[in-house]
Amino acid sequence: MKNANDTAGGLRNVGLAVIAFGVVVAGLVLGRAFLIPLAIAIFLWNLLEAMIEGFASVAVGPYKLPRSLASMLGVAAVALGFYLVASILLGQADAIAAAWPRYIARFESIVSDLTQWLGAEWAAKIREAVAAIDLTARIPRVIASTQSIVVNFLLVVAYIGFLFVERSHLGEKVAAMFPDAHRARNISLLFGSISESVRRYIWIKTIVSVVTAVVCYTVLRWVGVDFAETWALLIFVLNFIPNIGSIVGVAFPALLALVQFDTLGPFVTLVVGLTAIQLAIGSVLEPMLMGSTLNMSPFAIILGLAFWGTVWGIVGMFLCVPILVVVMIVCAHVPSWRWLAILLSKDGQLPA
Predict the structure, then answer these.
(1) Domain segments of the chain: what residues?
(2) Which pLDDT tens digit goes with each residue over 59-107?
(3) pLDDT tens for residues 300-318?
(4) What is residue 63's three-state secondary structure?
(5) Among candidate residues 104, 331, 17, the one with its CA nearest the CA of residue 323
(6) In this structure, what are the phi and psi dihedrals at residue 182, rounded to the nearest 5 degrees?
(7) 232 with 214: CB under 8 angstroms?
């Protein structure tokens, strides 16, 4: 009788867990318009905090920079980054529009050459697929997307401002929520562990992405690919998406080289060169800097990319790893969920 009750209780717990998971997924999908700007704001806030802590640790003799000055330097660095991104994209927009007819002509030439290899039927299908891309019909959609981006950007800026204000009162709130001093201390340590791990990951990933983008930019300029600055910027951004981002960052400029040049030499050079850079930095430099910070299973990361990409699209893929870091740390501190943290880890070693 006891075994039957235990089995029934176990099935009931599994059923409740499945229902709870479904409710959470539904909430993530239905609330994405609100949750995505908030998640981006938390991501950027952690990046800002990491930069501020880096500036504050700079010592000039016996003196260190005050936090107020470090905060201004951090905000200025992020603002400068956004300014450079906007300058690169806007500065090359006219050049892209001017070069587009040349790329189309080269692409049609490639399709004609493919006719000899694939046959006329496949070549006709490729032409139909290209002709189906009506850029004019997409202009209203692009304008609507631009308006949405501006609104979300303002929301993100507002969220970051309020997060900075709330930061100074977090300790008081934890103490008020948990009158037991020992439990309040443990909760504060948990928040500190999460914040430190996420900030360290974001900071190191930013440095690694900058190095990757600069080295790839050197190769792109050497080969002579058009819009090397834009491709380097794209490589920097995509480097935050594990595994898949590196592949896409190599594929896009290589495909452009395929339609820009009349020979396959630049295409092969870019595929080999950019892939070697991604592998060298991703396999040597990044693990060396990360150390034990990101002790996470590669399979868990792939599953996370699939899940968050399905739920939140490309933004979810960017935020996948920080979210998994938070989940793993929280589960490691909850005895009943420790098994999940072990599954998410690479070697079963969890933070103390």
Answers:
(1) 1-30
(2) 766 777 777 788 888 888 888 877 887 777 777 766 777 776 776 766 6
(3) 888 888 888 888 888 888 8
(4) strand
(5) 331
(6) -65, -45
(7) yes
